[in-house]
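hey so i finally got around to running the thing on that chain from the lab meeting. sorry it took forever, my laptop kept dying and i had to restart like 3 times. anyway pasting the input first so we r on the same page abt which one it is
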Amino acid sequence: MLLISGSVAAAPAVSSRALDEVRAAADRGQWLAAEGKAAELLRLARDADEDTVWELRIRRGEALASLARFAESREMLQPELPPRLARGRIAVRRLLALTALSFYGGDRKAAARYIDQAQELAASSQPFLLPNALLYRSFLDPAESDNLLRRALQLARKNGNELAELNIEYRIQHYHLVQGHQYVEAIRSFERLLTRTRALHYDGLELKLEGELGWALRDIGDFEQAAGHFERAVKASEKTGAILDRIPFINQFANVAHDRGDLATADRYYRIAYSLAKPIGHSQLGMITHNLATIALESGHYDEARRLAQESEAIKTKRGDAESLLMTRILDSQIAAGTGDYETARKLVEAVPKEADRPETRWLAEAQLAAVYAAEKRNDDADRQFRRALATLRDARSGIQQEPMRLSFNNEAGAVVDDYVDFLVAAQRGEEALRAVETVQGQTLEEGLGISTNRDPKTIARQARSSILYYHLGPKHSYVWTITADNVTVATLPPRSTIHRTIDAYIRDLLGPAGGSMSRGTELFRMLVEPTGIRSGRVIVIPDGRLNVLNLETLVVPAPKQHFWIEDVVLRNAPSLQLLGREPQVQKPVKSVLLVGNAPQADPAYPALPNAGREVAVVAKRFSRAVVLDHANATPSAYRNASPATYDVLHFVAHGEATIANPFDSAVILGPDPNGYKLFARDIIKQPITARLVTISSCYGAGKRTYVGEGLVGLAWAFVRAGAQQVIAAVWDVNDAATPDLMDAMYKSINAGRDPATALRDAKLMLIHSKGLKPKYWAPFVIYSGM
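ok and heres what got predicted. didnt touch it at all, straight out
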């Protein structure tokens, strides 16, 4: 027998399957998993000189850098690769990881040296990774960032590098958001990318996109949605271990809490961010420390505020952040003023407006100087300085081209108006305070409609034959001006946070199974109405904040017998005094209606409305000329082609979609035509109308998004902007069964000669008295006056 003997090849130190697991985790930003698995495999492999072991070291180095364990990362990455690997894919990854590590550590020269090597090597021998190298270079060369990213995206698509493609698309949108403030486009893109990212389980990018969405939504004033995105981003970063991303997200989550007036929550999360940022010298440490100082100041802890401000200044000085240092001087001025050292406070901030590059820094400094003058009782100087701050705000707003951004501008700038109003009311200059609020109220609508008036409030009330309740909700004090034909008075109300909290609780009650809490309704009546002295008659409300989503008809009058306020008043809302103050148009009888609705189902998300046909029929019979676009004829293009400007009334019976990110995307849901099935707010605006009344018989027709100074912006806002005199729309869900009876009664009353506000009230009272219906059935509909 012939025996053949030989040596058995040694098993590799690391199996290809195990290495693939580490690669997959690292490629998807799952840093804790990648580092843990790589560390375990390296312990078993010891110092084996194998390609797989070298790759594990580089992969672990990448993960350690993202976990902010910089010294350990450097230990993994610094050793030179053996010559056989010097031009391979792992060599490029090593250079990219060293670029990031140097960048994190603030050594931009070293980062530039490493990225030069990485890009050259990728271009010559590893083209699959060239998009990654260009992406890294974009961080180091901001001036060329846009060109670099677009080239990188083209190469990633050509090479089939999908993870790099997604990351680069994210960076392009981030760049445009930062440079051009293109919030609407960025939000849409981030949402699309988030869907693709989740499908690929790309956790590292998913958390970044959640954070970017939170940032963009906070900047446009949608604090509720922003908080949700930040919370998800923080949780995802905890799962992946991405501490460098987690710190900004926690800081932003705290910012949202601060925006809402929740100082305790803001303080807690700022402290968490600080505890994570300080040991690693995170780039946002100076900002986080500044934010902590602001909370201490607002809580009256001046010594702590001063200590934190000094720490923040030292950090910012080291980083050479000149504009941010100016913000610290404003903070120092606020601290000095808080302790009564007005001279120091004044000197700290006097020169800031001239030194600032950003308009925001200028108007904040001007407003702070005004606050110091006010504290010193130098009222003329304070008034002059507040007006200067408002002028800076107007100039900054005038440079904004995108209408959605002009809408949201006052969300950012409203604090200056709040402080000025507090100053004027304290000086017993209530009518001047009203004029100050009116300068930012309904600006975008007035611009779109070409309104430029400055009529006396009492004249406007006399013309409208109504009392006007004008609300302004502030962080320290809120106010309501009561305007009649003879007088203007102002009353002080609780802070915004108290009013918002009570409104939200009452709305939950109204929409819940019980149908409403009489005690909360009474509490709000006493809070919001009793200080005005108005109990009955015709009332126009100019709301603010969460008052935009509360129908004041539902408030409960406590005595002599409990009842809803609708029993005593004919109520309507208006965007601003000046919109009310336009010259009245001749009120002719309403004879014609364009009815659009009862469309076929175009999307499973919008099921058929069982009572839509009945509503179309009962409304049509109330007009001598009724043109009905229903069933397959109820399409966006059919509405546009029906000459809507020729009708007295436009009435829609359809689902409504209210979007928060961009209210101009709010839509009436109709039947399909070649361009889709949605009649968008942005298209409604483009087609002028002259209708005396537009009725949007759908859920949330008034919108869901509230802007400081603009109110709810959605379909109702769009029709007012298009030229409607009055619009009826819903602030909540609409009950499909109850609505036809409500509309039939309303139009019957209009035909009898009643104005729309009185007719709508008559119809609601009919439902209350004859059917005993609760507010959730009749209160969603609110009438908005465009004049």
